[in-house]
Write a structure and sequence with these properties.
By secondary structure, this protein is an alpha+beta fold. About 35% of the residues lie in helices and about 20% in strands.
């Protein structure tokens, strides 16, 4: 089957530079590993930039069959280029063009990217989450929250802008920093002092799997939060990942259950990662859900999959099959082992599109 791996590397393929720039992108090594995993499983693979030329490139690489039906599929790794709800942009383009793809829909990504909407949805589903307030101004009063609190942008991911505030008098400066830098509201959330665990999910409906649970071990580090530097391996004392997390069976099953409920409440598809905290009394709280769980080699999702029995190539192909089954009821058909398409040809294709 023809598979286009769509990602963002260059941010030049737009009409105007306008709106908040996307701070995330996959590294080339991970993109290549995904393409190789798909090619090694018998798919014909192209690696395609997710920009304004995308649909023309896809139409050339995998035109419709004789009955106007899709002849290929997209493995979506595109975080977007700019603007709000950036994860939604490529899935929306693909739905407009009638091209099936892996991962969540524009609706699911939009809901998961808005941390406040996520919390409202999961609370409606009786999933526990820390109390919070949403502030658009630093002088907005907060009366009912217990300190310390965690302050972070409402719409960002990978811990951008995250800050722990212990003293109420320091809250206005933290909120002002979020509003000025990220041009969006600040989510102020009660800090849960305890263990941090993430749950990887794979699949849809009754066939959904929960991967091995991963705990972030902070050791003696004073700041017991996973920061942006930790996630990009830049921190001086990065937390150790323990997998499988040493949890009592009943608690582990509770985390799996509320993670699946979070996935459903946010209308996600195919795969995701849920981040939770467990307080000193053993009560779990969902912090957020990541609708595009990282496939980077050092990430918690890939580690959890490996401990569950999915090495990297089988994991990538399982994600593809899960999505293909969702659309067509069967796993993606294999052809024969194929190398990824040369990027130089793709670039030449892009240059030829008006």
């Amino acid at each position: 089957m023809k598979i286009a791996v769509v990602y963002n590397k260059s941010f030049d393929g737009v009409i105007n530079r306008f709106g908040q720039s996307c701070p995330e992108k996959y590294g080339q090594k991970t993109i290549d590993r995904v393409a190789q995993a798909l090619g090694g499983a018998g798919h014909e693979v192209a690696v395609v930039e997710g920009d304004k030329y995308l649909l023309g490139r896809l139409e050339e690489f995998m035109p419709p069959d004789g009955q106007g039906r899709p002849s290929g599929m997209v493995f979506n790794m595109a975080y977007g280029i700019q603007g709000e709800c950036r994860y939604t942009h490529i899935p929306a383009m693909l739905e407009l063009a009638g091209i099936p793809y892996t991962g969540s829909s524009p609706l699911g990504h939009a809901l998961a990217l808005d941390k406040v909407i996520t919390k409202d949805l999961i609370r409606a589903a009786n999933v526990p989450t820390p109390d919070y307030a949403v502030l658009s101004r630093p002088d907005h009063p907060v009366q009912r929250l217990r300190f310390p609190v965690v302050v972070k942008p409402r719409h960002e991911s990978t811990s951008f802008g995250l800050k722990l505030v212990a003293d109420p008098k320091d809250l206005p400066a933290a909120v002002e920093g979020i509003v000025e830098v990220y041009k969006q509201d600040a989510l102020v959330e009660e800090y849960i002092d305890g263990r941090e665990v993430c749950v990887g999910l794979l699949g849809n409906g009754e066939a959904q799997e929960t991967l091995a649970l991963v705990e972030q071990d902070f050791g003696d580090r004073p700041l017991r939060l996973v920061t942006h530097d930790d996630k990009y391996h830049k921190g001086p004392a990065e937390p150790e990942k323990i997998c499988p997390a040493p949890l009592a069976p009943a608690l582990a099953e509770q985390l799996r259950r509320i993670s699946r409920e979070t996935f459903r409440a946010c209308h996600l598809r195919d795969y995701a990662r849920v981040d939770l905290r467990i307080d000193s009394a053993g009560r779990p709280y969902v912090l957020e859900i990541n609708s595009m769980a990282s496939l980077g080699g050092g990430g918690s999702y890939v580690l959890a999959a490996a401990r569950t029995g999915y090495d990297f190539a089988p994991l990538v192909n399982r994600i593809l099959d899960v999505a293909h089954e969702r659309y067509f009821g069967v796993p993606a058909p294999r052809i024969s082992p194929q190398p990824p398409l040369d990027r130089r040809r793709l670039q030449a294709t892009a240059a030829s599109i008006p």
